[in-house]
Amino acid sequence: MEKTVRAIVISGNGTNCEREVAYACHLAGAAVDIVHIAELLTGRVNLNDYHFLNLAGGFLDGDDLGSAKAGANRLLHAPVAGSSDSLVTQLQQFIGAGKLVMGVCNGFQLLVKMGLLPALDGDLDQTCTLTHNDSDRFEDRWCQLIIDTASPCVFTQGLNNLYLPVRHGEGKFIVADEEVLQQLEDRHLTVMKYANDQGQPTQDYPANPNGSVAAIAGICDQSGRIFGLMPHPEAYLHRTHHPRWTREELPEAGMGLMLYQNAVRFIEKQLL
Ligand SMILES: NC(=O)CC[C@H](N)C(=O)O
After folding, report:
1. 167, 172, 174, 210: residue to mutate for ligand 1 pocket, most atoms within 8 A of CB
2. Mind naming one GO cellular-component term on file for this protein (predicted)?
């Protein structure tokens, strides 16, 4: 019997991109379920029945206390019904089994605020955050992105650059201290950066839409299997998603799809 890559997309409490993310997983060849967070907290669904966890974008808890902050506390501290463990314990088992996690935008904010990214020492201490854009407003624009080709990130293998949209109010990546940034750069965990027209990382607005330190748009953990990014790959799956599709010659598949295809291929090779 043919084995299937199983993807789960978490929804609820204010997410709004779960259908697009599920569609991306489907196009990449995975069987996908959209599961409300309450299904996990009540123990009706277990993460460990899946291979690929997707934390979708949106406005968890209305960005109250800062984007994804309340959500992070819920996952870290609220026990799963019938158990004394919180969902993060299940999540750590999931990660320990060599599986994949991708957090987009609000999902990235969630991973960072839970301490799952970058987890430089392997524990859940929060060492960086995503805060209000320098422009002090919501930024909704397409961005040029460059990829660190030496990064262990599973999702970006074979990619040099991407063109994807951002839509966020709190996308400015900052670190607790310079040492954290140094370690991220040295270990090639700063997977994705905002770039200018010359393809160089930039602090200039609007190419860098939020003022992120070192132009960081996405980071991974040391295994390369946990990846968070502010731009939305699920928003560029088809040629017609591109803002200039009527004026430019473009490949049929959008660039964002490649991240999901890399994930599915990795699981097929390593886990099935
Ligand atoms: N699109 C998103 O996921 C937005 C995330 C968050 N609500 C912000 O504005 O920063």
Report:
1. 167
2. cytoplasm
